[in-house]
Design brief:
This protein is of the alpha+beta class. The protein has a single domain (7-241), classed as Alpha-Beta Complex (Ribosomal Protein L22, Chain A). 31% of the residues lie in helices and 29% in strands. The protein is built from six helices and eleven strands. It has a five-stranded mixed β-sheet with strand order 1-11-2-6-5, with helices on one face. A hairpin with a 5-residue loop joins strand 9 (209-216) and strand 10 (222-229). The longest helix is centred in the N-terminal third of the chain and has 22 residues, at 54-75. The radius of gyration is 18 Å and the shape is globular. It starts with 6 loop residues before the first strand and ends with a strand.
Length: 242
């Protein structure tokens, strides 16, 4: 995998107006998995041992090691001491403080977004054919998004669908609602690049909000987006280097 972003170590300083986005190639460390495990807790190493599929185990170890190492730098603690807790969904979170992060992965790529002062959501998808694409768009997307996708040539609809889904998922992760929030309650642009404020209407327990949405291009055949809640942050993108 050839990442578009420059290699950097995990010691980069985080500005208050920035969101750092780290690309972690999950296919590049198979031979060195044991070295990556050094950053994990005993519980995480035990969890890794229970994953029977080699590919899934490697992806878990590498992404979790990068997460702990990067957060450990910002919190000035050893990777194993990063105070992660787990939501009911199993998603890792920090116990408290102003540091916010979100992790996503697809195929052999993981992206980690880290910022201060506001929740952040990130999503990445490997661009590939989607079965019943138009039907899924009609079921879940907002009318403006459906019209925009169907107006494109057939050859361009697949990537537009994945762009739309990825951007909506990043926003849902930023507002902390997960897929329980209706995807058709808000609309995102589906063009190649986006930097826009997206209004999120109140629904159920989710209050009305605004998200700053930005697209990312980590490597060929992948699309990604990052969203920050109620605050604008400048993306600073890098490829994670041990």
């Amino acid at each position: 995998m050839q990442l578009h972003w420059p290699d950097k170590a995990a010691t980069a300083d985080l500005g208050t107006d920035e969101v750092h986005v780290w690309a972690v190639a999950l296919d590049s460390a198979a031979a060195a998995t044991r070295a990556w495990e050094a950053a994990l807790t005993d519980d995480e190493r035990a969890r890794a041992e229970q994953i029977k599929i080699d590919e899934a185990r490697r992806r878990f170890v590498v992404s979790r090691s990068a997460l702990r190492t990067i957060l450990g730098h910002h919190l000035a603690v050893e990777p194993q001491e990063v105070p992660l807790v787990y939501a009911n969904s199993g998603k890792p979170e920090l116990k408290a403080g102003k540091l916010h992060f979100n992790l996503a992965h697809s195929g052999e790529l993981a992206l980690l977004a880290v910022t201060t002062g506001c929740p952040v959501g990130i999503d990445v998808e490997h661009v590939r054919p989607v079965r019943q694409r138009d039907e899924l768009a009609g079921r879940y997307f907002a009318p403006a998004e459906i019209d925009a996708i169907l107006a494109l040539d057939e050859s361009r609809r697949g990537e537009a669908f994945v762009n739309c889904w990825t951007r909506k998922e990043a926003i849902l992760k930023a507002i902390g609602s997960g897929l329980g929030y209706p995807l058709d309650a808000f609309a995102v642009p589906i063009g190649a690049t986006v930097a826009a404020w997206i209004d999120i209407p109140a629904r159920g327990s989710v209050a009305a909000a605004r998200c700053c949405l930005m697209t990312l291009a980590p490597c060929a055949d992948y699309v990604a987006a990052v969203a920050t809640l109620d605050e604008e942050r400048q993306p600073v993108c890098a490829a994670y280097r041990v």
